[in-house]
Every structure is written in C-alpha cells, then in structure tokens.
Design brief:
Elements: E1 15-17, E2 20-21, E3 26-28, H1 32-35, E4 39-42, E5 46-48, E6 53-54, E7 63-65, E8 67-68, E9 90-94, E10 102-106, E11 127-130, E12 140-143, E13 153-154, E14 160-161, E15 179-180, H2 196-242, H3 269-282
Antiparallel strand pairs: 1-2, 3-4, 4-8, 5-6, 5-12, 6-7, 7-9, 9-10, 10-11, 12-13, 14-15
Keywords: Membrane, Transmembrane, Transmembrane helix
Length: about 325
C-alpha cells in the first residue's frame, strides 16, 4: 500500500522553523499527504496532544516540542517556540500546584539534534504549552515507528479518519485533508483543526445568515398578516352593502304619543236609562218604573155578586 493512501503511516517532511528542514529522524505523527499538516517528533517517540512529544525512558525520557510539516511554520499544528527558534527541539518542564497544566521551555542547545535528558524547572515567564483539559499529563495520540514510512501505533481513541467524503477507493484522493480525531476525556487529539480566523469567519457568516433569514421570515409573516386583515375588512364591507334595508313597521297605538290618542267618551248613566225606556216603548211593553200600590180584584164566578154594583147589569147573566 503506497504512502499516499495509508492513514496509519508516518509520511511527510518536517520543519522546526519557517523554511528550516528538520533532521530526517524527526518524522510526522500521521500521513501529511492525507491528513494535512502534522506535528513531528523524534523517531520512536510518542505523539501527544498540544503538539508535544514524549521520549521513552530507554533514551532521554523527556517531554519536548519539535516541529511540523508546514514549511511556513504558521499552521496550528506547528508549536511555536519563542526564545528557541533556532533549536530542532526544546525540552519542557511541567509546573506544579495551581499551574500544573502549564509546561515551560528550558535549556538552549541550538546544535543539538538527538534528544538528551534536561535538568530544568518551571519558568512561568516562558510558558510554551497549556494543557486544555487542566490536567498534569498530555493525552497520547500514538507511538511513532523507528523510521519514516513505518506504521504508527495509534491510540484506539485517536484513530485518524478522512475529513472529506471520498467516492470509491481512498487512493483517489490527491491531497489529504483527513484528521486524527479523539475525545477530550479519552485523550483524543485533533490534527486538522480550523484556524482561529476561519472559525471566526464561519461564526460571523452563520450569525449574519441567520439574521437575514429571520428578517425575511418576519417580512413574509407581516405581509401575509396584512393581507388577511385586508381580506377580512373587504368581506365585511361587501356583506354590509348587499344586505336589504330593514322593513318599515307601522307604529302601534300603544307606541303613539299621548297627544295623538283620542280619549274615550265619558259613560253617562242617565242617557243609558233613557235609551232603555225608549226601547221598551217601541216594543209595546208599557214599561213603568214602579209597580202599582194596590190592585182591584175581580170575581171570577157568577155566584159571587156581593161586590157587584146593584145598579149595574151583570155581564154574565140576565
């Protein structure tokens, strides 16, 4: 399998400064052709987070910084070494107490290529590495082979992956953009992070784009709401214009003013009595207002003549 297609091999040229090529024994912590810029360590060393390295106790047993595969030495994978720009590697001393996550540089040996033990202590005036998780130890990415082109033994939590999707065989990728990724708690390292400028640009672009989308949505919502209001007003106006006029009702006598109602004539008892007497006369009833005080009885049998006037002829006999 070629160097351009295997993510697990150490491949690329290392630099310890801008345009300064490192000794060939300093090799990348990944395949620079596929995974982009990688930081470098001395062959056989361990690649750590924060772009640091650790040499085994069989040699120097030190933690140090070396270089990277970017010839300009400006990529984030390139650990800056202020005060030690002419050195291929710089030993690190870990601080203690509340500064236990800080590592400072020590010793000056510009011509020294191979690693050697350094007796140095923390110097807070020249901090080179700060462990982002606040711990005293730097997470392991993997151990390098003893020469370039060999296979890297990656930590299972920091296996390299392709950053962009590829179709078919990964060998079709001309230039690598894959990164070795890992979780923070499990000592996972990232070897292809975006620069601060790129991250800020993406954040600003996302915010501006979000504001534009929100503004457009607010405009459309307001326009639709205004349209619904206009339609409702037009519909109500149309119903009012087309409705027939209410019927004209005749006013009832009860509702007329008192000045327009004719008063009923007064009831006259005398007139009613006179009228009743006249009606009786017309009918031949001989109506009288009083009964006679006494009546004259007339005998009905001829034998009873005691009361008959002797001078008067009897009506029934001779």
């Amino acid at each position: 399998m070629s160097n351009q297609t295997d993510l697990y091999i150490s491949n690329g040229t290392c630099y310890y400064g801008g345009g300064q090529i490192s000794d060939p024994r300093y090799i990348p912590c990944g395949n620079a052709e596929l995974s982009g810029v990688q930081h470098c360590c001395f062959e056989g060393s361990y690649c750590l987070k924060s772009y640091a390295c650790y040499d085994t106790p069989r040699t120097a047993a030190i933690t140090y910084l070396a270089g990277c595969t970017d010839p300009t030495f400006l990529d984030e994978q390139c650990a800056q070494k202020p005060g030690y720009t002419g050195q291929q590697w710089v030993a690190l001393a870990r601080c203690s107490g509340e500064n236990i996550s800080l590592w400072t540089g020590c010793a000056h040996h510009p011509s020294q290529v191979e690693l050697e033990k350094e007796n140095c202590s923390c110097n807070l005036t020249n901090v080179l590495v700060e462990n982002t998780n606040g711990q005293s130890s730097l997470g392991e990415i993997g151990s390098l082979p003893t020469s370039a082109g060999g296979t890297i033994s990656f930590n299972p939590t920091a296996l390299p992956t392709y950053a962009q999707a590829t179709s078919g065989d990964p060998s079709s990728v001309a230039s690598g953009t894959a990164t070795a990724t890992a979780t923070e708690g499990a000592s996972v390292a990232s070897s292809g992070r975006l620069s601060a400028g790129a991250t800020a640009g993406i954040a600003v672009g996302s915010i501006v784009g979000g504001l534009v989308v929100l503004g457009a949505m607010a405009f459309l919502f307001r326009k639709a709401y205004r349209r619904r209001i206009d339609q409702a007003v037009a519909a109500r106006t149309s119903r009012t214009d087309s409705a027939p006029p209410p019927p004209q009702l005749e006013p009832s006598p009860m509702s007329q003013p008192s000045s327009q109602v004719s008063p009923a004539p007064p009831y006259n008892v005398s007139n009613q009595i006179s009228k009743c007497e006249e009606d009786g006369k017309i009918a031949g009833l001989g109506y009288k207002s009083e009964m006679p005080a006494e009546s004259t009885s007339k005998p009905e049998l001829p034998g009873d003549l005691g009361a008959v006037n002797p001078g008067r002829r009897h009506e029934l006999g001779t």
